[in-house]
Amino acid sequence: MDFSSFLTSLATSFVIFVVLMLLFTWLSRRPGNHEIYFPNRKLKGLDPYEGLRVTRNPISWIREALSSTEADVIRMSGVDTAVYFVFLTTVLGLFVLGGLVLLPVLLPVSATARFRIKVNETTSEGTFNDLDKLSMAHIEEESPRLWAFVAATYWVSFVAYCLLWKAYKHVANLRAAALMSPEVKSEQFAVVVRDIPPVPEGQTRKEQVDSYFKAIYPDTFYRSMVVTDNKKANKIYDELEGYRKKLARAEAIYAESKKTSPEGTRPTTKTGFLGLFGEKVYAIEYYDEKIKELIPKLENEQKVTLKDKQQSAAVIFFNNRVTAAAASQSLHDMMVEKWTVIDAPESRQLIWTNLPKYFYERQIRQYVIYFIVFLTIFFYMIPIGFISALTTLENLKKLLPFLKPVVDIPAIKTVLEAYLPQIALIIFMALLPNFLLFLSKAEGIPSESHAQRAASGKYFYFTVLNVFIGVTIGSTLFSTFKQIEKDPNSIVKLLAESLPGTATFFLTFVALKFFVGYGLELSRIVPLIIYHLKKKYLCKTEDEVKEAWAPGDLGYATRIPNDMLIFTVVLCYSVIAPLIIPFGVVYFGLGWLVLRNQVLKVYVPSYESYGRIWPHIYIRIIASLILYQVTMVGYFSIKKFVYSPVIIPLPILSVIFIYICQRKFYRFFKSTALEVASHELKETPNMEVVFRSFIPPCLSSEKADEDQFEDALSQVSRTGGVG
Amino acid sequence: MDFSSFLTSLATSFVIFVVLMLLFTWLSRRPGNHEIYFPNRKLKGLDPYEGLRVTRNPISWIREALSSTEADVIRMSGVDTAVYFVFLTTVLGLFVLGGLVLLPVLLPVSATARFRIKVNETTSEGTFNDLDKLSMAHIEEESPRLWAFVAATYWVSFVAYCLLWKAYKHVANLRAAALMSPEVKSEQFAVVVRDIPPVPEGQTRKEQVDSYFKAIYPDTFYRSMVVTDNKKANKIYDELEGYRKKLARAEAIYAESKKTSPEGTRPTTKTGFLGLFGEKVYAIEYYDEKIKELIPKLENEQKVTLKDKQQSAAVIFFNNRVTAAAASQSLHDMMVEKWTVIDAPESRQLIWTNLPKYFYERQIRQYVIYFIVFLTIFFYMIPIGFISALTTLENLKKLLPFLKPVVDIPAIKTVLEAYLPQIALIIFMALLPNFLLFLSKAEGIPSESHAQRAASGKYFYFTVLNVFIGVTIGSTLFSTFKQIEKDPNSIVKLLAESLPGTATFFLTFVALKFFVGYGLELSRIVPLIIYHLKKKYLCKTEDEVKEAWAPGDLGYATRIPNDMLIFTVVLCYSVIAPLIIPFGVVYFGLGWLVLRNQVLKVYVPSYESYGRIWPHIYIRIIASLILYQVTMVGYFSIKKFVYSPVIIPLPILSVIFIYICQRKFYRFFKSTALEVASHELKETPNMEVVFRSFIPPCLSSEKADEDQFEDALSQVSRTGGVG
């Protein structure tokens, strides 16, 4: 890629972003779109502009984002979101501090070097280009100028250590503040117990659980809720809810039709598959009948479920937070595989079906899934390598000669050259996240947030291994494949050798990501169009409209790995081609701004894990840092720099840094400190409310009838107890 | 060493053992020696023969040992001792089951092989000898007979897995039974808290600690005891106790002298150093005066200590076992390096001076000490290698020619050949254990039992690395040193190569150990002589006599590593030279018998850790097993056996086995399961007694005056509290 196509790519991206931003300003001012641009405020019962300045000029959202505080973020979107911003700030800080030193120092050092770059070290076209002049590739071998790059590597690493340390401390404080809040949060009073041994003769499961915990916590045990197999009840409940929605819709259609003709048109439906086949009936009566049929069926199934489908897991409620926190950290049975107690996640993020999975089953599932992920990562490596090698224009012309006339038009050629490989890459990556989330849930993980973290971790390793290393090495794969075969240790060297060649590829990749990606994110064009289409042609009832603009959450499982990929790319090139740093700064700066706007006004978090995502992010930042340091070791030795071993202490230092940080901070992210849990509450918790918040919707009765819960949901404390 | 010198060595050892056993029978029957042969029973207030048969024939102790049960051992000597017997039984079982298969199978396979052993594969003399005929060295290279040895390796490994699994389960049950016992054990109601942050303005340390725990455990917190710097108080206390003993002694001497002359001789002493210099005074008056002087000084120092020398650690008492168990497992402050809570060991084994050491100080000390131990292990390697190479007779004659006439006498030659290297080794090893215990305590470990375990672990690695590997390789060191230099990976191969050459050395080493070692152990000749000498010439008072026969404990810190060394040696040779197995069986069988007698009648445990020694023993057994398996891999490849990779799964299997066992069982050995702690007590604990049992002797007041404890020893629960 030559310099002009790079500028074209950059300019196009920027223009797209400006257009999208103006579109956003214009669209978000129209009251009809408020559901799309301010759903979070709307759901919290706030007016879109309440507390904000009314003049809506194109940059007012920037001013609002900048003036918002961390407390605002926590109030509107929770601790997890605040932690995500700590991540963005940390990375941004790293690149700003890195750039402030690296750009003024390294660019002149490179530019003034008098070294002709060899053909194979430059970009794929094999022509010398202006960007390469500013990179480390321009320094001759064994040059003492390399000392400047060594110093730069150290500077970046130490800035990273300082910022990460500060960030970890800050996040721990955020978590502590949230956990010690005087609000009553149901999950802080509960623990989940799994691996309950078989019910002893002459006892029910409920009695077994109650007597066990009653004996250990005679004063603080409140009640237990045995996990049941709700599959059938769930199915009936979903069916029932479906018919209720359809009924509401049919009634709305009927009411609508009355406006045109006085008696209206009674809507009809068919009884067969999807309402498309079978006998034609009047919809309202048909749904009404179905609902009347299903209600007793559900009630019956609820009773059967609660009585006969009790499983080997339970949620235990205590009447204070300290006991729950201590219980979740303590060994209960002398064997770890029985009566395993963990802290309860929020009820909305409990994965109920995973709770009764047994200890050894979970262990085995975990290893099997690690193996599948391993295979996935390494079998995708090959196709990605191919794609990256094929999608240079030269190769395309060779493989698909009929494209030649089109491709040779200069304008199209430039655009294609700029975007073709990147687009292939982006589409490719879109297929994976759901598969990984599915795998993570299959591990037997008990909470949604944990599953998301696990999926995010897998996705991170996938992106770094495949996109970064894969593309980098892939671009020189065919020429050097035999070299790897001969000496597998040469992979670090190979990685380092191919870095400068793909620098401009990643430069445009980052630019595309931030301008187009964040432009789309801010303008919400796609959700807006879908919403208006749905509203106009599909939605008949209020609930349906509400569903149509439901904003969703930030989607950490893919967002964080994608950010981490950009971070890894920019970090690894930061010293080799410092020109990439400003792109990193713009990516994370713009991301901070756009997402600040989005979390305050748009996204609604679907769970709260009190910052547990942080250690996970932290480990991956350090992993990237180590990759960067190892790459630099390789790159310096390619430059035949005799002092390149001076870099070797850095990865070792990083490992020690991980160890110290995890040792100091991690345990608090795994469990709640008792001192934190012992802070006073605003009010005495209403344990009944706490307990009820954990009842799954398909089992909750509409009549406030207590007796039906007797079977699986114990009530020891109130009736006097078992033991 | 030829066959006759081996037999001489064996026969001599056996004769020594028989003599010592007869001596034991004869000596233990004399009532004047009962303090030496039955001190444990005496201290427990039992008659030496109570409940035992009266006829004291030479083997009656064997019958008694065999008929004793595990419950007897636990009653007389605690859970730790019972766990040590589980270790002996497991190892014995392994060798018996191994020997039953290996001896009848492998010996004929070796003996009938028609292969001339090469000179460098036999013993140091370079002559063919009868023992080697029965070893694997006698099998020719690439022979299909090697399959029998592969099968034997697998058999030994699988027997080991089965027995270890059973043993781990059994020990866990022993621990559970002890921890759930209805007896009130003070340490189960206490936790130790370390790393208390600096005292806030306007609070005392005591108030800080009390308010912190009162807030977290409002109902179950009983009282706290702040750790103080007792160095000075201890010194005064020791001085006082010393004078008290001297006073009693002087009075006894005076009373004695009255028997000969009516007015007696008033004993005198000198006021200077050690009572040898300075002014001559009447002893009784002088000591009396000193004691009167010291008592108020001690009381004053106690007050100062309790008030002004409070440190950053405390012992916290709860009024039930479950809370204490849960507290010791829970994170209290959000940072792990503040308010670190661990379960309290028994008060007698608390290392008070280590408690106030701070988190990071402990961490750093630990790594520094690991490094020192590493250096110790590897710098001792060289001298041991030299000793083993020098102490062959040939070398001795060369180096010390004046010994030649003595050494050439056949009888002396045989004895020297049999014992010389072993004796050098044993003396060498005697120097180390105290040094390692000192190092372990310097790590900042809070309890004596933990320090003993740590020392024992260090000693194990030392013995295995230096004695076993060192001697084995050392014997061929000089000839092959250059080979290692060229290829450091050859060390496994080298180890395997030199194994058969040193087989007979270890055979005699084991024989010496068990016959002479256990003979001395059983007969207690040395303690007996010391006791009688002391009693006759030194002891004047009852207390002094009691001190003279105090039996001490089993001394796990050296006993277990020594047993482990024998175990490692026998295990590693079990397939190569199966003839060693009977020696292993005799060693552990005899050990079991002799020690059963000793723990029931002699030794008094100095602490009880409820079987925490087991995971430690277990890990080292598996480490030996892996060493054995790796050695076998090496040895098979030396035999040019093409199928030698079939052994490779074994070490991997061992690692998986460690992982599973530790995952399943270890946590219960680290902390008490709540279910176990929740078992009912025989009586409501008297918390005052529990609390007082933790007061160090130098601070305990003789007047039952409560007020003096107010400063460092809080009494929140009874006076109404702080918060």
Task: Give an overview in words.
Chains A, B: Keywords: Calcium, Coiled coil, Ion channel, Ion transport, Membrane, Transmembrane, Transmembrane helix, Transport. Chains A, B: InterPro entries: Csc1-like, CSC1/OSCA1-like_7TM, CSC1/OSCA1-like_cyt, CSC1/OSCA1-like_N. Chains A, B: It is a multi-pass membrane protein. Chains A, B: This is CSC1-like protein ERD4. The structure is a homodimer of 723-residue chains. By secondary structure, chain A is mainly alpha-helical. Chain A has 3 domains: 468 residues, no CATH class; 126 residues, Alpha-Beta Plaits (2-Layer Sandwich); 71 residues. In chain A, 65% of the residues lie in helices and 4% in strands. Chain A is built from 28 helices and 6 strands. In chain A, α1 crosses α15, α17 packs parallel to α24 and α22 runs antiparallel to α23. The longest helix of chain A is centred in the N-terminal third of the chain and has 42 residues. The first copy, chain A, is globular and about 85 Å long. The C terminus of chain A is likely disordered. At the A-B interface, α7, α8, α11, α25 and α26 of A face α7, α8, α11, α25 and α26 of B.
Question: How many domain units of chain A?
Answer: 3
Shape of chain A: globular
The largest contact between protein chains, plus residue counts on each side, is: A-B, 34 and 34 residues
| Overall number of strands of chain A | 6
Averaged pLDDT of chain A: 80
Q: What summary fits the major beta sheet of chain A? A: 4 strands, antiparallel
In percent, how helical is the residue content of chain A? 55-70%
Report the span from N to C terminus of chain A: 78 Å
Number of helices of chain A: 28
Structural class of chain A: mainly alpha
Membrane topology (chains A, B): Multi-pass membrane protein
Family (chains A, B): Belongs to the CSC1 (TC 1.A.17) family.
Organism (chains A, B): Handroanthus impetiginosus
Subcellular location (chains A, B): Membrane
